[in-house]
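Shape matters. Shown next:

___
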Amino acid sequence: MKTEEIILGNFQLKYPLERLAPLNQILFLDIETTGFLSSGSTIYLIGCAFYSEGNWVIRQWFAQSADEEGELIRVFLTFAEQYTYLVHYNGNTFDLPFIKQKAAKYGFVCNFDQMEGLDIYRRIAPYKNFLKISDCKLKTIEEFLEIGREDTYNGGELIKVYKEFTFSHDYRLYHTLLLHNSEDMKGMLESLPVLAYYDLFNSSVKACKVQANYYNDIHGIPRKELVLQLVFPSFLPKPVSFMGRGCHFKGEGHEGTLIVPIFEEELKYFYANYKDYYYLPTEDMALHKSIASFVDKDYRQQATAANCYTRKFSCYLPQWNVLTVPFFKRDYKSKDLFFELTDDIKKNRQLFSDYASHVLNAMALQD
């Protein structure tokens, strides 16, 4: 078994990883195997990145033959015991189960379940459409962030290269195998800023300025929109813009703008306890029985869930689940929800910050 180490001198993370854990407690992990299933396949290389004495370091353990796999697993697990936080790329699906099964095969204790972890792939995959990328493979994220790499292989292509190495022990093949893994490790470190987009949807954004804007649409019809100036929890490494749910978002660095339509129309508020109400057909509204009992019986009827409402003309903002109550609808079966833009709400800056997060998630995760 061979061990290699690369010190990334002067390398600085461009994402505040210390939010997760102290840097010296975080271990990055990536493995290379001779197949995609642990049964019948071998782990021939384990790469790690860790912070030591002011530098990020990449360490690689390489099995020169399948016979060295057990020693490879043992040495890595012993090394990993000093860390409390694991970072990987799709490791929950591939790397971690693979190592666990190999550890069980050799009778080694694997403490991954006792460690906190972050799967970069799983955090960013839900926002693929928002980022306008074809997939969330590590190389795709690197291209999105304009990170270059020397390696041109993928893991599957290297299976044949490793098998050739076990026969020839050609140093050039050895270098090719280590290069791919080391660039994956460095790529993970350099790709961490992509987590800023996860933070955009899962940490608090701040609405620093909120105002209504009036304009005429392409048909000359007057419209209203809410314009929110936002401050983000993490620096966005690449500018992004996105339209969805009738809203528009544009962000760059720590700041962005979110535009949401304001609907000025008559909507309905539906009472939940309809059995306690009468519906007045001539008024097209429901009244509580304590009041409506004085109305002539010819002008009232027992309310149903569908007609137990009151109507109100006002300015409304859309919501995609109940963020703010009372909520209004256009009709009983409508899935579109709204809340009234009241004077009190206009003064509630924290609500607008919460609302911005609500809208952004609705846009990014729309079907």
The first strand starts at residue 2 and ends at 8. The chain has a mean pLDDT of 95. The radius of gyration is 29 Å.
